[in-house]
Design goal:
It contains seven helices and five strands, in the order αααβαβαβαββα. It is an alpha+beta fold and 231 residues long. The protein has two domains: 50 residues; 113 residues, 2-Layer Sandwich (Alpha-Beta Plaits). The termini are far apart.
Length: 231
């Protein structure tokens, strides 16, 4: 040992250290008995407790006496939701899988204004607009006034379910009130929801339309321009 090392000041246990004069306290090491050092007794205790819960919960499942993890308060027994046999009810405001609403004649309510695809922060909506005259579908009173989506695709993997598309739609054509979440698939292509699929998905209560009224062109109270009005 060099002379410099021997000249360093040494601190004794219990002396104040640092500018705050912190003093250390000796903590006695807990006694480790043979059972603690062997780990076997503690391991048996843990396995015994786990098996106790297993047989108790299995008995409740067989006899049908298990408590409802959603409607009943937490108590002894099973409180885990066994999905998909059990499903937690979603609230009315839950933003689920998208759907496209229909008119009374079954045509899409969407007018391909691109508001939803423009406001989407994830850029997961793709729309190709077309005129009713091109496809010769829909009522003749919509010709020259509205467009329709030739193609409407939502990438459910890219979607962040923010609900901006629903808020931006002026026609209430897209909604997220289905109350369901996307199903698990084994292919990315299956998460690309096309227009026909979106039109076939019902709302929470089985409806394909929307309760919000819509006045069509040519009907009384239509706020837009009309050819019969000459402006």
């Amino acid at each position: 040992m060099s002379e410099a090392e021997t000249s360093l000041p040494t601190k004794k246990l219990g002396e104040a250290l640092g500018p705050n004069q912190v003093r250390g306290v000796v903590v006695a090491r807990p006694a480790r008995t043979a059972s603690v050092q062997g780990y076997v007794p503690e391991l048996v205790k843990g396995i015994g407790q786990t098996m106790g819960y297993f047989f108790r919960n299995t008995k409740d499942m067989v006899l049908g006496t298990r408590n409802d993890p959603v409607l009943e308060s937490i108590s002894e027994g099973i409180n885990t939701i066994s999905y998909p046999e059990q499903k937690k009810p979603y609230s009315e405001r839950y933003r689920g899988v998208h759907r496209l609403t229909q008119r009374e004649d079954g045509s899409p309510r969407c007018v391909a204004c691109l508001c939803c695809s423009t406001v989407c922060p994830a850029q997961c909506i793709h729309i190709e607009a077309g005129d009713y005259t091109d496809a010769q579908q829909g009522d003749a009173k919509r010709t020259g006034y509205e467009k329709y989506p030739k193609r409407f695709v939502i990438d459910e993997l890219r979607c962040i379910f923010c609900g901006f598309c629903v808020e931006a739609c002026p026609c209430d054509a897209i909604r997220m009130d289905t109350g369901i979440h996307p199903s698990p698939y084994d292919s990315r292509d299956q998460f690309l929801y096309e227009k026909d699929l979106l039109l076939s998905i019902p709302g929470r209560y089985g409806e394909l339309q929307t309760e919000n009224p819509r006045v069509e062109p040519g009907e009384a109270g239509f706020p837009g321009i009309a050819r019969e009005q000459a402006h």
